[in-house]
Amino acid sequence: MSTTTTRVPRKVIRRPGDLIFGGASVGSALLILVILAGVAIFLTVEAIPAFTADPAEVTDGEGFLSYVWPLVAGTVIASVIAMVVATPIAVGIALFISHYAARRIGSVLGFIIDLLAAVPSVVFGMWGMQVFAVKLAPFYQWLEEHLGFIPFFASGSATGRTLLTASLVLAVMILPIITSVSREVFLQTPRLHEEAALALGATRWEMIRTAVLPFGMPGVIGGTMLGLGRALGETMAVAIILSPGVFSWNLIGTGNKTIPSEIALNFPEAAGLRLSELIAAGLVLFVITLAVNLFARWIVDRRSEFSGAN
Prior knowledge:
Elements: H1 16-52, H2 64-100, H3 103-116, H4 121-147, H5 163-187, H6 191-199, H7 204-233, H8 236-241, H9 259-266, H10 273-303
Helix pairs in contact: 1-10, 2-3, 2-5, 2-7, 2-10, 3-5, 4-5, 5-7, 6-7, 7-10, 9-10
């Protein structure tokens, strides 16, 4: 004789606090989408006059594309150089703090890195113009003498206020962001993964290479993209350092501009079509930043399967 028991479905009790928290979370997510859409619509509507204007009426007299592409090139070049310089240094600092330094030393270094992120942009700009650019000027002259046959180093600036100087200052500015994110991700590496690698005879570096870096790579990519977003949108530091002029591929010469610096220097006095040009340039920067973040999200999603977190 067998008996069967019927399981009665348990009624889920939803407390008021859960309902409030769930509604607030959904509302916050929707609010972000609404704000993003509102910014995109505003920029698009205000930029239409610049897109449809007679090319002769645009600032350079050859149309909006001819006006904006040097700004895009300067923005992308400065941001890429900053990211290439800052990322390996930031990852190295994060690994030292998380896996090499003593706890007390690591805490002090972490505090200093976080404090560096709080320094205002204008301070970095003044330091870059008054101190860093002056120190780099002799180096630029040396590059011109020995590597002047390369277009990037065709002529060195006597003042040091060049695109390369601005890029290096941007690298210093985004260094704390990448370091902080990478450090926190490395500290989340499962202890069992690290101990298993060491138990198999791996050295500390081999353990980091096989266990820590694969686990933390999505986080490093995310931190790098956050830093790249900061570099793409940086305004005051770049505007203070650069000497505005015609775009060229020469990284150590005067000239070159970025979209944020162009907007910051000209927006207060702009009106009419000139104002639409600057807003259209902002729309281009908005699209570039959105594309970079979507690309980073795609990379992180692809690598998450192999991060060791599963």
